Amino acid sequence: MPAAPPLFAFESVSVGPPAARRLHDLDARLPAEGLTVVAGPSGSGKSTLLRLCNRLEVPSEGTVRHRGEDIAQRDPLALRRDVAMVFQRPVTFAGTVLDNLREADRDCDAARGAELLERAGLPATFLDRDAGELSGGEAQRACLARALATDPHVMLMDEPTSALDARATDVLERLARQLVAAGTPVIWVSHSEEQMRRLADCVLLLADGHVDREGSAEEVLGGG
Fold first, then answer.
1. Each residue of 171-186: pLDDT tens digit?
2. Which CATH architecture has domain 8-91+153-221?
């Protein structure tokens, strides 16, 4: 029986004009399961790679495949419902938290909203809260709940804890691991080696727009 295709495959992918490439002829495979951390120094192409996964960026050259399918052939809006994203800084819309959930699912009622908030680590009482008055950690969890409203098959997380304190970071990391345990693969961009060691099943390490190393966290990071 043939092996399942990778979650995402990047085939000779370059992004940006020749004189200012953000990714250079990159070849990489992200595993179909678990939590993959994409790491590397600032400017190495981490966020660009993540944004390629749901066509917020498109390659200048090469092909990006999702479970074997060229995503250039997918409708971008349908793709983004399957491949949801939580950004580095939470962006909420005007209105209540429930209003924000309805931006992703117009039919979301209070019962569905309470379920989504529970999955994101917030109580149902937050449904009526003004989204603009949430703390950073609360807003990030509300954005996670909004991303979950489309029942995505993949969750992309672009340094989602970079502006959070240790407690809020711990909550979000635990939620990511719960998603993985429930069968939703997560791709998480990070620059923190400590976070990689806590979270990663697999690490893709970038440098100057190229793959530096890839493999299990132990293979890439070693002991320590």
1. 999 999 999 999 999 9
2. 3-Layer(aba) Sandwich (3.40)
SS3 223: coil
Residue 135 structure tokens = 């703390």
- For 62-108, write each residue's pLDDT tens digit: 999 999 999 999 999 999 999 999 999 999 999 999 999 999 999 99
Tell how many helices (H) and how many strands (E) occur in the chain. Answer: 8, 10
Q: Would residue 59 be called left, alpha or beta, if left means φ above 0 and alpha means ψ between -120 and 50 degrees? A: beta
Whether pTM exceeds 0.90: yes
Contact 188, 37 (CB under 8 A): yes
CB 10: neighbour CB atoms within 10 A?
23
User: What's the CA gap between 25 and 188, in Å, rounded?
Assistant: 22
